[in-house]
Structure formats: structure tokens, C-alpha cells
Design brief:
Elements: E1 3-15, E2 21-33, E3 37-41, H1 48-55, E4 63-65, E5 70-73, E6 76-77, H2 83-89, E7 94-97, H3 101-104, H4 111-123, H5 127-140, H6 146-149, H7 159-171, E8 177-181, H8 189-206, E9 209-214, H9 217-223, E10 226-231, E11 234-240, H10 241-246, H11 251-259, H12 273-277, E12 298-311, E13 315-329, E14 334-338, H13 345-352, E15 360-365, E16 368-369, H14 375-382, E17 385-388, H15 392-395, H16 402-412, H17 419-432, H18 449-461, E18 467-471, H19 479-496, E19 499-504, H20 507-513, E20 516-521, E21 524-530, H21 531-536, H22 541-548
Parallel strand pairs: 3-9, 3-10, 7-8, 8-9, 14-19, 14-20, 17-18, 18-19
Antiparallel strand pairs: 1-2, 1-4, 1-5, 5-6, 10-11, 12-13, 12-15, 15-16, 20-21
Length: 558
């Protein structure tokens, strides 16, 4: 098989100050054959994106390349190529699709103008030719009503449509190599499936190679021919996708495969990286649904949320984000809420905590309708219903230390007789969520994403809540960190009898965590039942569509 790109002994460091450098990648070597897909797999900080961006020379100015580093393309070294040659190559021979399309697309230009710009620069097409080719590209990547969408701005498109525009720009000049850097991470499972099918089809039609960067092994198993596993800036293992998934030889690769929740089993604890690397015995005992004991903690009836939106110059229209939702929460159990973006699942969680006001319906808690309480009356219930948000960094005050973050809510709700007692409670909670006592005086930016989420969980626990709403609280985490946080949530549930509302678009995670599941579509609950029942015998076509879109990879990840 012909080699398109050969990365040889790549080393990249970053100059942090006059005296300090940080080594991000060291001695990385791999080949990308022509007309094939190679996946770079690893956790955040593994060096996979740095390795990929080295190919197109899109590294920050403080990057330092190792003297022996070489990236060969058509017989010449890209790392030694003049910058003008690289500008001609980028977008024409080698293109990139980035993780977050909204930050990559220019908000002040229409999507049609942005695709046409690539064609004018690299193929020297005139305006008419560029417009015709842009329409063809938008049709090819599956954007609905392409003529109308030509004049749309990025913010007027959904996340999946924005990513399709990015792909159209990337394939405009029929590149030899497409670098896809986590292109589906922020997308719902059905949209993710569409994008993966689109990339696979484009590769076959255009005979291009794809360098696919991801930490989702289910996706990697479906799309890739070769896999390169990276950790801490080094290649730990490489081989065919069949060999890596069925007989991995490196302990880290085995750990990545084991950390992901499976659809065919629910062990009481998920394996984490250290379990596999240190050869600890894995948990074989299966989790069973928590029993329903006593009356419901919360009864939700006919819950709805309407928004009044501007329509035309003077008109208004009503958009129903949630319609006629009914469900119950029981002590010690987990209710999973699944659906695509815009289905209303986050709105449900926000109404439960009264961070969003309901337009209709009731939320009965111990005979009191929370939806009817004033802000002052609701204050006494806020400590009993807490929420963990998706992005812990955005929800933690960057100017507060961990200690201040934990003490502030206790002071507001008059928990503890003084700050000395509150500090002791905070230290206990820091250790409870797996952090160290010395983290008390550190700031959020000094922690990893998983550690920040632990801080957010500890902040919830300061209130000694009975119900915690987890709103996509593990979706931004690597699989190994995700497994650690899920284990922590289950341990806390067992210890304190917590009730969870677990909101996510990751169906494998929801199946692992939930006792009962609500499936939401366009603001309505279309199906509900036990986790096992929903996954084994889905009744509604939408539920069947969601489950059919789950990336299963090879048998090792199912």
C-alpha cells in the first residue's frame, strides 16, 4: 500500500518562559497510507492534536520542533517547506475539519461565501463557477435546501449543519488528506452517525485519506483501517483496527477499551486506567436497578415550558420547549433523560431546580408545588435539589479557591456554626470526591477537567442534597476520566441515598447509570420505562432511531 504521509520521529515542545519548556510530543512515528483512514486515539493531553497539526504546520508560535523530526509528503519534508508552499498545500492537498465549527467559521460571512472563498483561492474559479461548485458541495454533504442556505450565516444553522459546512470547505479542492480533529464530539448521536456516514462516503468517492482524531473508541472501530494509540506524547501501540480492538498488547490500550460503558453488561464499577495498568481484578458483579421504596420524592405532572419569540416586524409566536411532561423521582434511584439537542431534556432539569420557570404543570415535593413558590419560599428547597452542569470550568468562579467555592454556599444556607467548621466540612468533602486536602487553596485553572467536575460535585454535596440533576456532566470528559466520575457518582448515591436526574445524549452512559429512562423528542416524552426494557425492546420509532445510531465499533466495544 502506497504511503501518503510519513511522520518520522516527531518531537514538539512548547516554550512557556525563557527558562521553561514543556514537551508535548516525543519520538512519534506513523504512516498514513493512500485512500485509508488512520485514527489517532488517546486522552486529552496525549499529543494527538499536536501531532496532527504538525502535518499542516498550524502549531502556536512558541512550538519548538525536534531536530530529527520529519513529515514526508510526495518526497519532501513538510516541516522544512517554505511557508508559501504550505499555504498552497493547506486546503488544497491537505484539509482540516476542526472540533468546534462555530469557532472555526467566520460569523460575519455567509456559509456560501466561506466555501466559495476556498475555491477562488486554490482553484482560481470565478464568482459564477465558485457559486455553482459551492451548491454542488453543499448538496454533496447533505445540507437541506442548499440554495436557501447559501445566504445563511453560521449562527442560523444547527451544529450538525455547521459541521457539514466545514466538511464542504475541507473537501472543496478534493484533498489527498483530510484531518478530522474530534469532528463529532459535540454532536448528538444521530447527527454524529450522519457525519460519520458522510465522511466514509466522501472517502470512497474521492479516494482520499483521513486522519481521524478521537477518544471515542466506538467511532474509531467503525471508521478506521489503522489505529495509533497515544499517551503522554508517545505512541503506545499501533496496528490494524481489527488487531487493536481484539488483541491489544499495551495495557493502556486495554484500559481505554475497558473504561467505556458497554451495552451488554452493567458492572457495579467501571474499570479505570489504573485498574488495568496495575493489573487489579475487575468488578464482575452486575448492577441491578435500585428498588422503589416508599412514595415518590417528586411528582411532576403536565410540566411545560413555552417561549415567546419574535416573528416578523411586529408578530410573536410561541415555541414549546417542553410539553406535558409527567414523571416521578424515587429515593436512591436514577432517572435518565435522553434525546437530541433541542429535545427539552436540559429544560426539564432547569425547571426542577427552578433555574427556569415552568409555564405549566406542577412539581410536587412533599405536598408543596415548587413551581408555585416565590423566590424567597424556594430558597429553603434549593439546598435539597442541586445541579451539576456540563462545563465545570464555566460554573466555578475562577477567582475563588476550592475552599471558597465550597464554603460560600454553606455560608449562604447557614450550614455550620462558623467558617472554621465549614472549612472542616469542605476538607472532608474534598477527600470524599477523591481530591487532596492541599487542593483546598488552589484555583479552578490548576485542575484538569475531571478534577474540576469533582469540585463541582463536592460543591453540590455541601448542601447535603436529596436530589442532584446531572446535566451532561460527563459528556466533555475522556472515557477514563468519565469512568472515574461515574464510579464516584454511584458511590455517593450508595452512601447518601441520593436521587439523580441524569441528562445526556450518550446512550451507553445513560444505560449504565439509569434505573428508568425518559426518551424526549421535540419537547415531548415519547417513551419511558426501565433502562433494560428501553434498550432491549424500544417501542417508539424515535427511540429505535437513537439506539440504531449508537457507534458500536467492533465487538470489543459493544
Amino acid at each position: 500500500m502506497n504511503t501518503l504521509i510519513s511522520v518520522q520521529d516527531l518531537s514538539v515542545s512548547f516554550r512557556m518562559s525563557k527558562t521553561e519548556t514543556v514537551e508535548a510530543v516525543r519520538g512519534v512515528s506513523f504512516d498514513i497510507p493512500a485512500n485509508s483512514t488512520v485514527a489517532l486515539v488517546g486522552e486529552s493531553g496525549s499529543g494527538k492534536s499536536v501531532s496532527a497539526m504538525s502535518i499542516v504546520r498550524l502549531l502556536p508560535e512558541n512550538a519548538i520542533l525536534g531536530e530529527s523530526s520529519r513529515i514526508l509528503y510526495n518526497g519532501f519534508d513538510l516541516l522544512a517547506a517554505p511557508i508559501d508552499d504550505m499555504r498552497r498545500l493547506r486546503g488544497k492537498d491537505i484539509s482540516v475539519v476542526f472540533q468546534e465549527p462555530m469557532s472555526s467559521l467566520n460569523p460575519v460571512f455567509t456559509v456560501g461565501e466561506q466555501i466559495a472563498e476556498v475555491l477562488r483561492i486554490h482553484l482560481k474559479l470565478n464568482s459564477r463557477q465558485a457559486l455553482d461548485r459551492t451548491l454542488d458541495l453543499m448538496t454533496e454533504v447533505g445540507i437541506p435546501n442548499p440554495k436557501e442556505r447559501l445566504k445563511s450565516y453560521p449562527h442560523e444553522l444547527s451544529g450538525g449543519q455547521q459541521q457539514r459546512v466545514m466538511i464542504a470547505m475541507a473537501i472543496a479542492c478534493e484533498p489527498k488528506l483530510l484531518i478530522a480533529d474530534e469532528p463529532t464530539t459535540a454532536l448528538d448521536v444521530t447527527v454524529q452517525r450522519q457525519i460519520m456516514d458522510l465522511l466514509a462516503g466522501l472517502q470512497q468517492r474521492q479516494k482520499m485519506s483521513i486522519l481521524f482524531i478521537s477518544h471515542d473508541l466506538g467511532l474509531v472501530g467503525e471508521i478506521s483501517d489503522q489505529v495509533v494509540v497515544m499517551r503522554s506524547g508517545e505512541v503506545r501501540e499501533a496496528g490494524t483496527v481489527q488487531r487493536i480492538f481484539t488483541t491489544p498488547t499495551d495495557a493502556y490500550t486495554q484500559a481505554l477499551l475497558a473504561c467505556r460503558p458497554r451495552l451488554d453488561s452493567r458492572p457495579r464499577r467501571l474499570a479505570v486506567i489504573d485498574d488495568i495498568v496495575n493489573k487489579r481484578p475487575l468488578c464482575t458483579e452486575q448492577r441491578v436497578a435500585a428498588p422503589i421504596n416508599g412514595a415518590a420524592l417528586i411528582e411532576v405532572k403536565n410540566l411545560g415550558k413555552d417561549y415567546s419569540l419574535k416573528s416578523g416586524l411586529f408578530g410573536r409566536k410561541v415555541f414549546s420547549a417542553v410539553k406535558h411532561a409527567d414523571f416521578s423521582l424515587y429515593k436512591g434511584r436514577t432517572l435518565g433523560v435522553v434525546g437530541e439537542s433541542g429535545s427539552g431534556k436540559t429544560t426539564i432539569g432547569m425547571m426542577l431546580t427552578r433555574l427556569t420557570e415552568a409555564s405549566a404543570g406542577s412539581i410536587m415535593f412533599e405536598g408543596v408545588d415548587l413551581a408555585q413558590l416565590s423566590a424567597a419560599q424556594m430558597q429553603i428547597y434549593r439546598s435539597r435539589i442541586q445541579i451539576i452542569f456540563q462545563n465545570p470550568y464555566a460554573s466555578l468562579n475562577p477567582r475563588f479557591t476550592v475552599g471558597q467555592i465550597l464554603i460560600e454556599p454553606m455560608r449562604i444556607h447557614k450550614i455550620g456554626k462558623d467558617d472554621a467548621e465549614r472549612s472542616q466540612l469542605a476538607l472532608q468533602l474534598i477527600e470524599k470526591v477523591g481530591l487532596k486536602r492541599e487542593d483546598f487553596g488552589k484555583y479552578p485553572h490548576e485542575f484538569s477537567g475531571g478534577q474540576r467536575q469533582r469540585i463541582a460535585i463536592a460543591r453540590c454535596l455541601t448542601m447535603k442534597p436529596e436530589i442532584i440533576v446531572c446535566d451532561e456532566s460527563v459528556s466533555a470528559l475522556d472515557v477514563s476520566v468519565q469512568a472515574t466520575v461515574l464510579n464516584l457518582l454511584l458511590d455517593l448515591q450508595d452512601e447518601f441515598g441520593l436521587t439523580y436526574v441524569f441528562i445526556s445524549h450518550d446512550l451507553a452512559v445513560v444505560k449504565y447509570m439509569a434505573d428508568e429512562i425518559l426518551v424526549m423528542s421535540q419537547g415531548e416524552v415519547v417513551e419511558r420505562g426501565s433502562a433494560e426494557e428501553i434498550y432491549a425492546r424500544p417501542q417508539h420509532p424515535y427511540t429505535q432511531q437513537l439506539l440504531g445510531a449508537i457507534p458500536r465499533g467492533l465487538a470489543a466495544t459493544v
